[in-house]
Amino acid sequence: MGESGGGAVDLVVPTCVGALHVQRVGSGPAALLWHSLVVDSEEWARVLPALVRHRALIMIDGPGHGASQPPPSLFTSAQCADAAMTVLDTLGVADADWVGRAGVRGSAWWPPRGTPTGSGPSRCWARST
């Protein structure tokens, strides 16, 4: 698992789905938190105190949400996965657990490193909870 120092980071990362606002807090194994539609990373506020005790949390405001810029065009789930990987690369995080929400069911997308997710059928996996 990726490890992170405890210092808080607040930045904007250029990605294929636009410039995304990213916050990183805590230390330990990395967990990337991607919110549900029509909200932003504030969605995690109630669970943040419990999670940050054990993890380096990387919270992303999705395209057009929170402090992120509007996307330059329509985008796919696979492009969001690519954008998340760009964020991790920018932060120097080699691996992270994905915590995500979509509507009323949880979901996660995670392409293997080096997988071209922008063409053909998505090679990402999804899990509903």
From TrEMBL:
Gene3D superfamilies: alpha/beta hydrolase. It comes from the Bacteria. InterPro entries: AB_hydrolase_1, AB_hydrolase_fold. Residues 109-123 have a biased composition (Low complexity). It holds the Pfam family Abhydrolase_1. Residues 109-129 are annotated as: Disordered. Residues 32-100 form the AB hydrolase-1 domain. This is AB hydrolase-1 domain-containing protein.
